[in-house]
Amino acid sequence: MNRSLWTALRALAITVVCLIIAMPVVWMIAAAFKTNVQVTDPSVGLIFSPTLENFRNVLADGEIARSLGNSALVGLISTVLSALIAVPAAWAVGRFRMHSTGSLVLVARIVPAISLLVPWYYLFAQLGLVGSYTVLVLSHMFVSVPLILWIMIGFFEGLPIELEEAGRVDGLSAFGAFRRIALPLAAPGTATASLLAFIFSWNNFMFALILSDENTKTMPVTLFNFISYASTDWGGLMAAATLMTVPVLLAAVFGQKYLVAGLTAGATKG
Amino acid sequence: MSGTHLNRRAFGRLLAAGAGAAALAACGGSSTPGRNTPLRISAINHVWSQAVQKRLPEFEDSIGRRVSMQLLTADQLSSSYNVKLNASANDIDVMMVRALQEQLLFARNGWLTDLSDLVADQEFDWADFQDAPRQRSITRDKVLSVPVVTERPALYYRKDLVDGPPATLDALREEAFRLTTADRFGYVGRGQRSGAVTQWSSFLYSFGGDFTTADGGSGIGSPEAVAAYRFYGELLDRAGPPGATNMSLEQAMPIFAQGKAAFYIDADAIYSNFLDPAISTVQEQVGFAPFPAGPAGSKPHNIPSWSVGINQFSMLKDEAWQFIQWVSGPQMVTELQAAGIPGARSSAWEDPSTLTAFPADLAEAMRINAENGIGHDRPEVIQVGRARDIVGRPLVAGIIGQDVAPVAAEAHAEFADFLVRDNRQQEF
């Protein structure tokens, strides 16, 4: 096949796929600027007179700001703590061939979350922790730790062991070799894994629904305030969903720049 | 290894001791809640709950305790109960429940407190509650919930398109077919397999059928049920929007609100959507009418869509009952009904001032539907979701233009088996 035709077809395929993937996001953002009548009217597409009313209502609601703050707090703390545990663990699993231990940790990702909630709820209720940030952070870590661990095992296994051996020859302890050599080289991987763990935490609905209370509930639960028994405030819902998506989108965009820089730096060193 | 380091066995012992201490702490006896412990209410995000929430300070003052009200969607509420009450949670005191959807299951699990002695209080006047909703609050001779919101179907129609509302189902069909044009649907309604069952129930009763027979067997294979399936299917197939089988309340309601349909039958509780200029383009044209009569007359459902009960594990049962007395007492029901939220007390319905908040034709339609009402809108079983899936299958067949009879016969056989199994689970 002609090379330019092939390139054109490939560009067309990529455009179509991108449009399909972006469509829900575009619809969400467009709906956030529409009235409820316009949202439910299929004849109103992307050409309409926009309104900021939905954002005004959402921002005037103190509960949205509090929930966004709760989501950020739980997401950041659970991600940082998970990374502190999972990154050294991944190095140990990778370097000392502890794959059965690694598989055991993976069970946490295999078990459906809903089946964990009854025993968790019972245990945390007895400990008086239900409704606290602690319980949300712990529950999110239960999923984030295996996620980071398994992404990082591959990263550490991919690093040449000779680099750490050289450090050991120069007098570093095993942990010193991890901290001073392996960890900096695995920074792009740590960033990727942490970003994915943060996104999981940011979007998690089920754990927050059961384990949070009015003061600690996170944004995915609060979004449902816009859905009542007989009606849905689509404009408000989409404005709140847009506000919820923006921080993660920014984190992904900036994270990606950092990742590319980190990967390039690693390649140059290699 | 030096003495200061833990060996593997010592570490194991330490871990076991820690786990044991945690378990002991976890199994410690629960204490009586202090004055700072709030009364916790789990409720549906509904206009009723929002209206009650605004009035909470008045109740808090009367009991001297803070009240925390959590509003969730119906599915979230259900998931929350299933997880928390499985773990004998005591952080829910008052539970808002759908008596017809989950009361039987909750009763079987022992999650709802028996209110029989409490409602017997003369002042509470239990007999004042409408018969159909009151009967649905009783499971195994025990009153387990008190109805607070009732619901019937209403016929929403476009006054600018017809001279008056159709009084019979045949007239509705004829008009709907006549008014179907390229840019307007003659009729819109729920068509989703499970979601449509509750609204279809009024068609079923008005054709002379029911979900079950008098001896507890399947009723969906009867000639009346097949006729109701065929009627509803044909109505949506020939006069309804494309993709009707994916439509529940959330999808069907906006089509009528956008002025794209001539008739719509759904819960009367959603009427305000058509009068709200932020959502509706038909606020001037919409009319309200009672459910049209079928071959067996007009037999709409009249159900307690939402009720309140007390968690069996609550530590604040006295305060929880005080809350129920407050929200379901004659004064509050009258007040809320006057604000447009239909309750279950006959005294409120008999008071003309409570109906002034509704458009006159809707108030009249609600009164007539309540008089003719049948107290259930879905099969009365433990596994309601599964039952609705089975019952809804011939509905979908009718809507997509298939022959209903063989699908109904198949569903009838499956439903009969299901009922035998479900009845066994009801032995508690």
TrEMBL record, chain A:
Record field: transmembrane: 12-33, 72-92, 104-123, 135-160, 181-202, 234-254
Keywords linked to the UniProt accession: Cell membrane, Membrane, Transmembrane, Transmembrane helix, Transport
Domain of life: Bacteria
Keyword GTP-binding found: no
Topology with respect to the bilayer: Multi-pass membrane protein
UniProt GO BP: transmembrane transport
Residue span, ABC transmembrane type-1 domain: 68-255
GO cellular component: plasma membrane
Location(s), subcellular: Cell membrane
Predominant localisation class: membrane
InterPro entries membership: BP-dep_ABC_trans_perm (IPR050901), MetI-like (IPR000515), MetI-like_sf (IPR035906)
UniProt similarity note: Belongs to the binding-protein-dependent transport system permease family.
Protein name: Carbohydrate ABC transporter permease
